[in-house]
């Protein structure tokens, strides 16, 4: 009973009018919520406050960073498109240099959106060929990663990039460290013409390594394309070294002049980790032929035979490859007997 | 990351599903694995070409590929031969700059391929340990430490992997000894301590590692090592106790649930597992306790160690340990000296300058001094210290706590080396038992009672007390000379023999009372026939290792008669009688020791009896918590500052403590409720059901009204039948009876 009085009072309180007083301010409502806050600094996220239009250099850099790190695929694509127009303008507007562009954009080779990859290829084609050659080794790493990617679309698009690389810097592609053997490895993985798989699994069954899952899911068209690019790659590798006319000055230049090529002592491998057989560089035709003969000739010939039998696009591509092999390996005499 | 998730929706193949497929059918997916291995190789190259500036995308790709390959590497040992080496090289060279997530993945993958037995423990540990020692990242250190620890535990789980242990112990030893000043050795200390705690390493080698740590130059390492010796064994015991307490499965409950719930294979499995677990626990409980030596006992050359420690960290004026750490080292040194009865003479003179009341944490110094005293310390070395303590601490002008601490310290020292006291000082100190302060009074009384036992002739005649006076007169109490030791034997063994005899007698009596007297006599006769054999038979009869304690529980031993018979023995004035007793006791003792093997249960009983005898001897039969605690202190346990301060802390409890004590064990009273209601809600919370009485009380009135009305209309015979039925049922214990189906 003691509480009823208190309750009565509480109820009565609701109907009492609050007295307003001068200088006191309004009494706050019972359901009032304090929404004020304090902050030492205000951070405005991702907003440019400059009043003037950004200068072209900044814009270029901004787009470059957008292309390499934006979350949205359309934004990436648009940034790439912007960069492409800038690069293909006359004269090309490239404030950061080809090398920086490549470093930033090469990871996009294995981007998951087809449109982005397509645009990327356009951008690459707009790059000046001379500027690409120093970065070929790096580019090849990404190409190899793309060629063995899980998704077949990415594999196919990566082949386009490789084709472009062969166009602009074929010599460097086949002669840079790892460029010859490792790329051939990737090709064999792509085509399923692999000599080492059967041994590795210990199965000597009557089926060849499976082609059912990743390599040739898109039918013969993709395989034809792969064989075609392989042929181009081998062509570049077996291209006869152009004979340099004897130049009496060359010897002295070699000794006393600063070398003009980038990384002229790469073959010494002064700073990198030790290379194995696959990662080694094969700078001249003969060494490439030797390695090709010892490691790949059998597997590729076998695969080639099968491909020829298939006919159609694959058969035609195989015929081209066959031709390339004949031309390239025709003058190889095999291992010198020792 | 988010972008990658979106990408997975777009690209129709992902590594997780590939991994799943490979697991199911490795042969068919060899080609795919090879592709991914090449992809991994390419990504690795991309990554290694610029490990510090690799883009997030590349890192993510590499992370995923490493993960996938680590999971299926065991299916293709030939293709992935280089994988383990790659990972090792990667983490060893780039651990400082790697992305944390990738770093974690690499460490995890290494552990994974170790579990798949692609690499062995040794190579894993020798890869991870150097990184643990050198990495600047805290999170990586935590991860590696945990990994190393779990790997070592796993390697030792089935049987002790001596080779691995030796390798790692050597690595740790080298780590500490190679560079004494480096703080890296702290990891060796941490690892050793943890493994010691879990009883994975229990031999002398880890103790040696810790010994080296104690003698290092880095303060942290030194303190780590010292703390190990001071607390490592206690930690180990505590962990063991925790383990045995944890996770008790209520088998009855599980069985009940199985009986009620729908039967399914899963439930059956759960039940089987529970049963197995309980069995395992039982087995563990009954397994003989592993005989683990404490670290202090496993030390090789304790004398050299104590001397080195003392010279290096305490005597050396250039040593820059803080006071707290110095005290720890001192504690260890004195513990060693006391435990192994070492002789480090310079230690005692070193103490002199710290024994003033103004010295910070002086009670710890006092405790250490007492701890470092034993009966082989020359009294000449101790006497000046005792005099100094008496002069500095014990005076009318000093505060009562100071005086109490001083007297306590003197008592503790003299308990270990009574010869260090001289007559005048003792008589002076004993006077303080008239002090008004309780702490001082108790401390002085303690000193007095100590000397009544060990050196009564130093006391004034009227202080000696009855027992000591008689003992002195009869020559029963003799003063020990310096270095004198008891003739060999096991302390308290005669007590055990006596107890056993009494037990036997009691059992026989019980048997006779049950009318099986004949058998009892037979067995008795047999015993007398061939003593040796039956003694061992006897022990096996009573359950060997464990069950002895069991029958203790069943029938508590008659305490009264035993203590009665003992007390007069101790005080017995008759010389001849006592001599006879002593001879008889000696004979009994040798008999027991030579004719039977003491089981652990026996030893436990022995310890208990010894304790009881000590308490009885000190206090008559009064039970006093303090005295009991004092008697229970094992020789191995160190002396702490609290024990020196103890009586000065005799002030009463605070109000909060008293309130808490009063509340202890009573139900929580959030609101005003009856005890019944509180009990009821507690039961509800535990998910227990109501009693029949409660159900009846709660039953809806309208449901009972019909029966109640009908009851009124019963005839007399009907009523009688009902009542009879009720009595009958209650006798049977319910409708169906309660005599077990």
TrEMBL record, chain A:
<dbReference type="GO" id="GO:0006364">
    <property type="term" value="P:rRNA processing"/>
</dbReference>
<keyword id="KW-0690">Ribosome biogenesis</keyword>
<comment type="function">
    <text>Component of the RIX1 complex required for processing of ITS2 sequences from 35S pre-rRNA.</text>
</comment>
<comment type="similarity">
    <text>Belongs to the IPI1/TEX10 family.</text>
</comment>
<keyword id="KW-0698">rRNA processing</keyword>
<keyword id="KW-0539">Nucleus</keyword>
<dbReference type="InterPro" id="IPR024679">
    <property type="entry name" value="Ipi1_N"/>
</dbReference>
<dbReference type="Pfam" id="PF12333">
    <property type="entry name" value="Ipi1_N"/>
</dbReference>
<dbReference type="GO" id="GO:0120330">
    <property type="term" value="C:rixosome complex"/>
</dbReference>
<dbReference type="InterPro" id="IPR016024">
    <property type="entry name" value="ARM-type_fold"/>
</dbReference>
<comment type="subunit">
    <text>Component of the RIX1 complex.</text>
</comment>
<dbReference type="GO" id="GO:0005634">
    <property type="term" value="C:nucleus"/>
</dbReference>
<feature type="region of interest" description="Disordered">
    <location>
        <begin position="1"/>
        <end position="32"/>
    </location>
</feature>
<protein>
    <recommendedName>
        <fullName>Pre-rRNA-processing protein</fullName>
    </recommendedName>
</protein>
<feature type="domain" description="Pre-rRNA-processing protein Ipi1 N-terminal">
    <location>
        <begin position="132"/>
        <end position="234"/>
    </location>
</feature>
<feature type="compositionally biased region" description="Basic residues">
    <location>
        <begin position="1"/>
        <end position="10"/>
    </location>
</feature>
From TrEMBL, chain B:
<keyword id="KW-0813">Transport</keyword>
<dbReference type="Pfam" id="PF21638">
    <property type="entry name" value="SDA1_C"/>
</dbReference>
<dbReference type="InterPro" id="IPR048292">
    <property type="entry name" value="SDA1_C"/>
</dbReference>
<dbReference type="GO" id="GO:0005730">
    <property type="term" value="C:nucleolus"/>
</dbReference>
<feature type="domain" description="SDA1 C-terminal">
    <location>
        <begin position="688"/>
        <end position="733"/>
    </location>
</feature>
<feature type="compositionally biased region" description="Basic and acidic residues">
    <location>
        <begin position="715"/>
        <end position="731"/>
    </location>
</feature>
<feature type="domain" description="SDA1 middle">
    <location>
        <begin position="502"/>
        <end position="665"/>
    </location>
</feature>
<dbReference type="GO" id="GO:0042273">
    <property type="term" value="P:ribosomal large subunit biogenesis"/>
</dbReference>
<comment type="similarity">
    <text>Belongs to the SDA1 family.</text>
</comment>
<dbReference type="GO" id="GO:0000055">
    <property type="term" value="P:ribosomal large subunit export from nucleus"/>
</dbReference>
<keyword id="KW-0690">Ribosome biogenesis</keyword>
<keyword id="KW-0539">Nucleus</keyword>
<feature type="compositionally biased region" description="Basic and acidic residues">
    <location>
        <begin position="683"/>
        <end position="694"/>
    </location>
</feature>
<dbReference type="InterPro" id="IPR007949">
    <property type="entry name" value="SDA1_MD"/>
</dbReference>
<dbReference type="Pfam" id="PF08158">
    <property type="entry name" value="SDA1_HEAT"/>
</dbReference>
<feature type="compositionally biased region" description="Acidic residues">
    <location>
        <begin position="566"/>
        <end position="582"/>
    </location>
</feature>
<feature type="compositionally biased region" description="Acidic residues">
    <location>
        <begin position="521"/>
        <end position="532"/>
    </location>
</feature>
<dbReference type="InterPro" id="IPR016024">
    <property type="entry name" value="ARM-type_fold"/>
</dbReference>
<dbReference type="GO" id="GO:0007089">
    <property type="term" value="P:traversing start control point of mitotic cell cycle"/>
</dbReference>
<dbReference type="InterPro" id="IPR027312">
    <property type="entry name" value="Sda1"/>
</dbReference>
<dbReference type="InterPro" id="IPR012977">
    <property type="entry name" value="SDA1_N"/>
</dbReference>
<feature type="compositionally biased region" description="Basic and acidic residues">
    <location>
        <begin position="653"/>
        <end position="674"/>
    </location>
</feature>
């Amino acid at each position: 009973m003691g509480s009823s009085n208190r309750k009565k009072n509480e109820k009565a309180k609701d109907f009492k009018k609050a007295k307003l007083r001068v200088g006191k301010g309004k009494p706050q409502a019972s359901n009032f919520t304090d929404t004020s806050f304090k902050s030492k600094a205000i951070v405005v996220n991702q907003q440019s406050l400059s009043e003037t239009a950004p200068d072209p250099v900044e814009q270029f850099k901004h787009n470059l960073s957008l292309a390499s790190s934006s979350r949205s695929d359309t934004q990436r694509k648009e940034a790439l498109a912007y960069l492409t127009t800038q690069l293909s303008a006359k004269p090309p507007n490239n404030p950061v240099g080809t090398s920086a562009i490549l470093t930033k954009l090469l990871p996009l080779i294995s981007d998951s959106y087809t449109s982005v990859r397509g645009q990327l290829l356009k951008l690459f084609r707009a790059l000046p060929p001379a500027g690409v050659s120093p970065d070929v080794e790096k580019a090849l790493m990404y190409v190899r990663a793309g060629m063995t990617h899980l998704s077949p679309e990415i594999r196919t698009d990566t082949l386009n990039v490789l084709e472009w690389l062969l166009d602009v810097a074929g010599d460097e592609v086949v002669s840079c460290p790892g460029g010859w053997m490792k790329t051939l490895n990737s090709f064999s993985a792509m085509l399923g013409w692999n000599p080492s798989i059967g041994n590795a699994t210990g199965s000597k069954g009557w089926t060849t390594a499976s082609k059912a899952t990743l390599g040739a899911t898109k039918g013969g068209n993709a395989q034809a394309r792969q064989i075609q690019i392989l042929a181009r790659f081998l062509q570049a590798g077996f291209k006869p070294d152009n004979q340099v006319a004897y130049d009496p000055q060359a010897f002295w230049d070699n000794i006393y002049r600063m070398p003009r090529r980038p990384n002229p002592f790469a073959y010494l491998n002064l700073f990198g980790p030790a290379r194995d057989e696959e990662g080694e560089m094969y700078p001249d035709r003969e060494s490439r032929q030797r390695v090709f003969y010892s490691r790949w000739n059998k597997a590729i010939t076998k695969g080639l035979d099968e491909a020829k039998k298939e006919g159609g696009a694959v058969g035609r591509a195989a015929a081209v490859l066959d031709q390339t092999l004949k031309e390239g390996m025709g003058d190889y005499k095999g291992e010198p007997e020792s | 990351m988010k972008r990658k998730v979106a990408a997975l929706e777009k690209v129709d193949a992902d590594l997780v599903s590939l991994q799943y497929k490979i697991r199911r059918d490795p042969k068919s997916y060899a080609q795919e694995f090879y592709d991914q291995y090449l992809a991994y190789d390419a990504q690795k190259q991309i990554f290694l070409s610029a490990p510090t500036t690799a883009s997030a995308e590349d890192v993510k790709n590499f992370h995923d590929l490493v993960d996938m390959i680590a999971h299926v590497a065991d299916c293709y040992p030939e293709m992935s031969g280089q994988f383990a080496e790659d990972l090792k090289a990667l983490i060893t060279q780039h651990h400082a700059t790697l992305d944390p997530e990738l770093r974690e993945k690499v460490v995890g993958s290494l552990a994974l391929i170790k579990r798949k037995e692609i690499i062995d423990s040794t190579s894993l540990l020798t890869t991870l340990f150097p990184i643990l020692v050198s990495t600047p990242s805290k999170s990586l250190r935590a991860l590696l430490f945990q990994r190393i620890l779990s790997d070592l535990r796993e390697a030792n789980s089935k049987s002790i992997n001596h080779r691995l242990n030796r390798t790692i112990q050597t690595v740790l030893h080298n780590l500490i000894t190679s560079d004494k000043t480096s703080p890296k050795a702290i990891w060796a200390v941490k690892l050793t301590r943890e493994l010691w705690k879990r009883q994975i390493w229990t031999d002398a080698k880890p103790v040696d590692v810790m010994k080296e740590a104690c003698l290092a130059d880095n303060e942290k390492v030194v303190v780590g090592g010292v703390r190990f010796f001071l607390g490592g064994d206690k930690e180990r015991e505590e962990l063991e106790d925790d383990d045995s307490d944890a996770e008790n499965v209520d088998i009855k409950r599980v069985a009940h649930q199985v009986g009620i719930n729908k039967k399914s294979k899963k439930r059956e499995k759960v039940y089987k597992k529970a049963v197995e677990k309980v069995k395992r626990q039982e087995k563990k409980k009954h397994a003989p306790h592993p005989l683990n030596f404490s670290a202090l006992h496993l030390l090789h050359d304790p004398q050299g160690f104590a001397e080195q420690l003392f010279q290096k960290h305490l005597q050396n004026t250039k040593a820059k340990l803080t006071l707290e750490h110095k005290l720890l080292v001192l504690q260890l040194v004195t513990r060693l000296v006391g435990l192994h009865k070492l002789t480090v003479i310079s230690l005692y003179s070193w103490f002199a300058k710290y024994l003033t009341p103004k010295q910070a944490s002086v009670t710890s110094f006092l405790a250490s001094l007492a701890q470092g005293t034993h009966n082989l310390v020359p009294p000449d070395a101790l006497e000046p210290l005792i005099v100094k303590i008496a002069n500095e601490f014990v005076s009318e002008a000093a505060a009562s706590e100071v005086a109490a601490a001083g007297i306590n310290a003197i008592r503790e020292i003299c308990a270990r080396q009574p010869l260090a006291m001289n007559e005048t000082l003792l008589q002076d100190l004993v006077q303080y038992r008239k002090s008004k302060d309780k702490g001082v009074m108790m401390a002085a009384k303690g000193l007095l009672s100590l000397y009544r036992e060990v050196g009564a002739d130093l006391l004034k005649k009227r202080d000696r007390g009855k027992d000591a006076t008689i003992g002195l007169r009869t020559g029963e109490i003799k003063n020990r000379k310096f270095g004198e030791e008891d003739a060999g034997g096991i302390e308290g063994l005669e007590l055990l023999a006596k107890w056993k005899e009494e037990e036997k007698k009691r059992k026989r009596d019980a048997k006779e009372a049950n009318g099986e007297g004949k058998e009892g006599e037979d067995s008795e006769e047999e015993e007398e026939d061939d003593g040796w054999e039956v003694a061992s038979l006897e022990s096996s009869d009573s359950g060997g290792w464990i069950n002895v304690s069991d029958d203790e529980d069943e029938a508590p031993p008659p305490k009264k008669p035993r203590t009665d018979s003992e007390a007069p023995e101790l005080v017995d004035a008759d010389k001849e009688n006592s001599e006879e007793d002593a001879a008889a006791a000696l004979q009994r003792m040798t008999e027991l020791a030579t004719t039977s093997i003491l089981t652990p249960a026996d030893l436990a009983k022995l310890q208990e009896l010894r304790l009881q005898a000590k308490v009885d001897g000190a206090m008559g039969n009064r039970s006093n918590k303090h005295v009991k605690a004092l008697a229970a202190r094992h020789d191995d346990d160190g002396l702490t500052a609290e024990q020196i301060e103890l009586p000065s802390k005799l002030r009463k409890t605070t109000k909060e403590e008293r309130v808490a004590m009063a509340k202890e064990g009573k139900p929580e009273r959030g609101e005003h409720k009856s005890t019944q209601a509180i009990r009821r809600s507690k039961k509800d919370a535990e998910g227990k059901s109501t009693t029949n009485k409660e159900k009846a009380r709660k039953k809806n009135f309208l449901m009972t009204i019909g029966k109640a009305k009908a009851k009124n209309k019963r005839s007399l015979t009907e009523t009688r039948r009902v009542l009879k039925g009720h009595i009958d049922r209650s006798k049977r214990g319910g409708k169906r009876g309660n005599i077990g189906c």
